[in-house]
Design brief:
mainly alpha, Hypothetical protein af1432, EC 3.6.1.41
């Protein structure tokens, strides 16, 4: 599927504001791919599709999680988490994406996980720092992202965990695993 066709299908699946966000994530992801010697094409595709399932029906999402034997822990959460693994599934089955790197980057863009690839980190951080994002610390996140993907992941994950905890929201276990992975790996670099 050509980029324009993909964008049109994505545009029809979400409100205009979310589509503008998607374009910002794509722009940021491609810039980061250049900086970190990753495939710009893969970064573009993963970014375009990363939020495709954001407005997917909750009941259909539950059914897919069960039918496709996705992590059953997802069922304890909601679409804020589900849209990533559901999006990876739809990227494969509706868009014909078979590249596991692209599918994993979509799958982990909300929670993170241990041992993330460069593309996984690029999509996670492009989503976190795209030009439309405006929250305390986003400028610092952008600066750190330009210098080190791993340090930026630690920064973003620590802020995300802190934010969710301050709202007494549940935190997906993979997010803690990702945080610990980056905290330990950065600590090792220091010694």
């Amino acid at each position: 599927m050509k980029r324009e066709e993909m964008l049109e299908k994505v545009r029809l699946a979400m409100p205009e504001k979310r589509f503008i966000h998607t374009l910002g994530v794509e722009k940021t992801a491609v810039e980061l791919a250049k900086r970190y010697f990753e495939s710009e094409e893969k970064a573009s595709i993963a970014a375009i599709l990363h939020d495709y399932a954001k407005y997917y029906d909750d009941e259909l999402s539950r059914e897919l999680i069960i039918r496709e034997k996705m992590n059953p822990e997802f069922l304890a959460y909601n679409n804020a988490i589900w849209h990533a693994p559901i999006g990876a599934y739809l990227a494969e089955h509706e868009f014909g994406i078979t590249d596991s790197e692209i599918l994993n980057a979509i799958r982990w863009h909300t929670t993170g996980t241990e041992n993330m690839s460069t593309l996984d980190k690029i999509i996670f951080l492009a989503d976190y720092t795209e030009p439309g994002r405006d929250f305390p610390g986003v400028e610092e996140a952008r600066k750190i992202t330009a210098a080190s993907l791993d340090k930026a992941m630690l920064f973003a994950l620590s802020r995300t965990i802190g934010y969710l905890a301050s709202k007494e929201q549940p935190i997906f276990p993979d997010t803690f695993s990702a945080y610990n992975h980056f905290a330990f790996s950065i600590k090792k670099e220091m010694f």
